[in-house]
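Annotated sample (chain length 378).
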Amino acid sequence: MSLATEPVPGSGARVIVGLSGGVDSAVAALLLRDAGWDVQGLFLSNWTEEDDDAYCTTAEDFQDARAVAAELGIVLHRVSFAAEYRERVFAHFLSEHRAGRTPNPDVLCNREIKFGVALAWARRLGATHFATGHYARLGPSPDGPALCKARDAGKDQSYFLHAVGTHELALTLMPLGELHKSVVRERARRAGLPVFDKPDSTGICFIGERPFREFLGRYLARSPGPIESADGERLGTHDGLAFYTLGQRAGLHIGGRSGHDQAPWYVAAKNAARNVLVVVQGHDHPLLESRSLTTGLWHWLAPPRREPFRGAVKVRYRQDDQAARLEPCADGTMHIVFDTPQRAVTPGQYAVAYDGERCLGGAVIERLDRGAQLSAAA
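Output written by the structure step:
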């Protein structure tokens, strides 16, 4: 297990497990209980919209969490941080979309909710630690807890955890970091946990999977404008820049244009001043590529580096490590130059750096350094 999951024999140290109703958190609770911890569960329900029954699975998930708690013989608490979620996560999510950027709410949800107010709640319940079913590893290092990739590379969630503070990580347990998902499901099956074959959750943190443009349209006004090719030819009309992301293919409705081949179109840039969506043909079009980028303030999970260094960077979840030169800036931001051009790098998403297995930290992508594309959007 990861970081001090073995309590002092007989100590009965309490840990609160974020019990979501899924198999991962259920097995996390199982492993900690079997290791001798005084385990209690905490179910979070942080999205409250009366007309969301078709997409929000909170009621079903809570019943699954209750069934797991009963099977394990542990106490289950329930709490809603809906107000905090709207203020700290969802408001930023909408603000970024209004600005034509593409945020990643899961990163903020982890920092502000799961390892913020939920961890603080766990401490008030008398716990020394808070635990989750995340696939990542925590280990000791001379400078504090080291966040490392999970053994199961296909499930690794360290990208989503890079913004959590080191103080919070020191109070956290992630028992699944050494396990593969297949092993987790088998442990759940052998233990008789009723969620052993429950599908993994997808969609926006706490909100779920739903028709995204329709959902976003409930909160953001549509502002139609022209869709143009890189050389300025008008090809169609978009619903509003907020509803599209760089590299997007679906939903453009501009196929079969005369004078063009049948290759698919992709969003290459947004011109907010003119309310223009710029598109190009071909998955590997040069205007979809970026050689370098600049981030916002960098959040370090390792001793800050002041000089340029080599490392690996991800600009989206599930991306393979990309070799790069990282250049810390005097203002606390980071300039990153990739060995190989990166496709559809998106402002509002996160660049996360690694030294081998260890996550060094990350920051929001602010600017793309690709003159050709910026000229096309001007």
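Annotation: The radius of gyration is 22 Å.
Annotation: Residues 113 and 286 are 39 Å apart (CA to CA).
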